[in-house]
Specification:
By secondary structure, the protein is mainly beta. It has a domain of about 100 residues. The chain has three helices and eight strands, in the order H-E-E-E-E-H-E-E-H-E-E.
Amino acid sequence: MGIFDKLFGGKKEKISDSSSNQELRMEYNIMKNISLEKSQKYENTELYELVENGIYKDLNDDDDAKYRITIAYELESDDSNNQYPLEDVLDKYYLHVSDFLESENNTESNKYKLELGGDLNDIKKSKEIIGKRIFNRDFLDEGQVRVNLIIE
């Protein structure tokens, strides 16, 4: 078996060319118990300034995306790509992970704590995910399987 086969799987028979025959998944990985947290590093008032509940300004960042919020969540994983639905949340609210807070996370756990960065309005809007469940769901669009971000 070659390296390509090891990485991407061996040659398999195609079941069907029609994507409408594919099974639609109702839920992928689920982000749940999302909470607003305070990172230990915000205690340094020379580097961070409290703007409002849970939102901090990074005083060393000159960019418009200098505002920070820290969230914690549990990931109920289906062993698929764990970057989703977080990646879709980042896209929806125009945010980025500014710090993975490795010192505040346990690598053996399904609980994560991350610092997100963005401009002030986007950070404020993103607070609507606190206390919600977030996941991706398949849907058919003109015969193509697409994925939708669900926040409930």
